[in-house]
Structure formats: structure tokens, C-alpha cells
Design goal:
The protein has 233 residues and is mainly beta. It is built from no helices and 17 strands. The strands form five sheets. Strands 10-1-15-12 form a four-stranded mixed β-sheet, with no helix packed on it. The chain starts with a strand and ends with a strand.
């Protein structure tokens, strides 16, 4: 199982600070000595342009070369999206985890979320079905979506997996993935990655933080092989 965490804000009013993040990774070269290069791309969304880095949570995360760019800014100054392109040189293809943690979402989140938290598991062992390292599922989503409280809306998160794996979505539910982990009461999330908003009364209006985990699952039983030749089913 490979994880890529996405956080999304659904709101109906302007506020400040953090609007969400999403990360994907792309394995590159494997040397004869067994070292591996992987490129990780992540987008950060804040009220104003801010660049913060993901940190190593577990495993050997290697050495990093980081490029930061401003992707887009809303004309009125309501939000800014920046992108990090992290190239990591790893001693092997062993799994590792990266963590984004330590700040606050925008003010007045209705479902009680205060601190942001996201984790990505990078799985680079060679797959028996493709003969290559796993690649993460991918999606693109706006950092904030406004919904009239009296209108039904379905948001297809446009999940895609370059390995042809089945992609499923769920709410974050562990202390590594979110803090707090309270799903928004006005939304429902399908395993096929459709986020649905149902009409609600005006007392429920306001910003909601949506903390999602996107996972890819192989469509057949496979083995994973590390750089030492050890195989795991």
C-alpha cells in the first residue's frame, strides 16, 4: 500500500493562513551500486506566499536538492500557491516517510481542525508486475472551493495512477495523517475519490478542512524487491 496525502479546504468565506497541500513522487535513476534518485513534487497553499519544507519522518530519506517556485496567486491576494521540487538521492530503494507538520489552518474551521498534518510514504522497491519502482497516484485540485449552501455539488478529484493501479480515497484517520481527524459533516467521500456536498441549512455555513488520503492498490498480487535482492509479497 502506498500513500499520498492530500488536504483540501471547502469554504464559503475568506480567512487566513493554510489552505492545503498535496505531494506526488516520481522515481528516476537507480545506480549500479544500488542508490536511487527520486523526484517529489508538492504544492502548498497559503493566504500569502509561504515556502515550508517537508521533513523526514522515518527511514533513510537521503540527501535533498530543493527548488521552490510560486505557481499562482489569486488577484485579490486571497491565496497563493507555491511548488516544491525535491530531488533526493537515496542509498537504497527502501521505503521512507516524509511529514508536513507544525502550523495552523485558516481561522474558524467549522469541523474543529486547527493544526495541519500530512504524511507521504515513498515506496520505491521494484514491482514484479512492471519491473520498475512504484509511482504515486496523482491528482490536481484547487486549494479552496466555494459551495452555495443550498446546492448539491460533486467534486471528482481526477485521481490517476501511472502504474495502472486502482486508486482509492479515504479520510485521514491516524495521528500521523491529521490532528484532529474530524471529517466535515456536510461532505461525504467515496472510495472512488468523489467528494460530495449536500444542501444544508445556513447554520452550517463556514470553512471546512478536508483531510484526505489517496492510496494506490495493485490489481493483482505482486512482489517487491529491494536493492539487495530480497523479495516481499
Amino acid at each position: 500500500m502506498w500513500l499520498s496525502v492530500m488536504l483540501l479546504l471547502v469554504c464559503s468565506s475568506q480567512a487566513t493562513h493554510f489552505y492545503g497541500t498535496v505531494m506526488t513522487y516520481y522515481p528516476k535513476n537507480t545506480s549500479a551500486a544500488g542508490s536511487v534518485t527520486v523526484v517529489l513534487r508538492y504544492k502548498l497553499n497559503f493566504h500569502s506566499c509561504t515556502n515550508l519544507n517537508w521533513t523526514c519522518l522515518s527511514g533513510d530519506c537521503g540527501t535533498e536538492s530543493l527548488q521552490l517556485n510560486t505557481v499562482d496567486m489569486e488577484n485579490s491576494g486571497e491565496w497563493c500557491q507555491t511548488e516544491g521540487i525535491s530531488t533526493r538521492l537515496l542509498p537504497s530503494n527502501a521505503p521512507f516517510q516524509l511529514w508536513f507538520n507544525g502550523g495552523n489552518w485558516i481561522d474558524n474551521i467549522v469541523n474543529g481542525i486547527t493544526s495541519w498534518r500530512a504524511v507521504t510514504l515513498v515506496e520505491l522497491r521494484s514491482r514484479s508486475d512492471t519491473g520498475q519502482a512504484n509511482r504515486s497516484p496523482q491528482t490536481t485540485i484547487l486549494p479552496a472551493v466555494r459551495v452555495p449552501s443550498n446546492c448539491q455539488r460533486d467534486f471528482n478529484l481526477l485521481a490517476f495512477d501511472p502504474d495502472g493501479d486502482e486508486v482509492k480515497c479515504r479520510y485521514g484517520n491516524t495521528t500521523l495523517e491529521c490532528n484532529l481527524c474530524t471529517p466535515p459533516s456536510v461532505l461525504s467521500l467515496s472510495p472512488s475519490c468523489t467528494l460530495s456536498f449536500s444542501p444544508t441549512n445556513s447554520s452550517n455555513q463556514g470553512p471546512y478542512a478536508v483531510q484526505l488520503v489517496m492510496e494506490d492498490f495493485p490489481r493483482q498480487t505482486i512482489n517487491l524487491t529491494d536493492t539487495n535482492g530480497c523479495r516481499r509479497g
